[in-house]
Write a structure and sequence with these properties.
Blueprint (H helix, E strand, L loop, with lengths): L3 H17 L11 E9 L9 H13 L4 E4 L14 E8 L1 H15 L20 E5 L19 E7 L4 H11 L9
Antiparallel strand pairs: 1-3, 1-5, 2-3, 4-5
């Protein structure tokens, strides 16, 4: 079963991008390649069960088991030793990715307190979008009763776009709520 967002991409977004950027081939049209979620684990936060709780939260949010990211080298200023777990990450592709993005656009982002739109500067020069959440409790899967500690998370949405303009247009057509420019 195809996701709602993927159908929208095929039926509305791809033809619009193809026309706007004068692309001859459907494969040349920018599309979302993958979505990566990342939670950094502070080296001072050595509570027993904290890492497992973060992994459990990320599993609830994405529907996929996260991978532990370990430090490649020791950094004494940050009290990090080589091989120490410094974060957990999940990479989503295909059906799960589109389901997650649909939920992100329509449910999660509107739940952010005092939200006035995403800044367009969050799209980089290669057309990828990076989002940071200070609190993970904006996701509907996280129940307020289960929260022991609030942690942030980063979301990186990678595209096949070659430049800023085509990446930004892709995200706007998919329905990401960007700030209105008042000039």
């Amino acid at each position: 079963m195809e996701s709602r967002l993927y159908k929208k991409y095929l039926q509305e977004v791809r033809p619009a991008l193809k026309e706007k950027f004068s692309l001859a081939n459907d494969l040349a049209v920018p599309r979302i390649d993958k979505v990566s979620l990342n939670v950094g684990i502070n080296s001072r936060n050595t509570d027993s069960g904290y890492l497992e709780k973060v992994e459990e939260d990320l599993t609830k949010i994405t529907g996929q088991k996260p991978v532990r990211a370990k430090a490649k080298k020791a950094i004494s200023a940050f009290k990090v030793r080589e091989g120490m777990v410094v974060g957990v990450k999940v990479t989503l592709r295909g059906q799960r990715m589109y389901d997650f993005l649909d939920k992100l656009i329509n449910v999660t982002i509107p739940r952010i307190r005092d939200f006035r739109g995403l800044p367009e500067k969050n799209v980089d020069q290669r057309g990828n979008l990076n989002l940071g959440f200070k609190e993970h409790n904006v996701f509907p899967e996280i129940k307020a009763d289960d929260i022991e500690k609030i942690h942030g998370l980063e979301i990186a949405i990678s595209t096949t776009a070659d430049d800023y303009a085509s990446g930004l247009e892709l995200f706007k057509l998919l329905g990401f709520p960007f700030q209105k420019n008042n000039k």
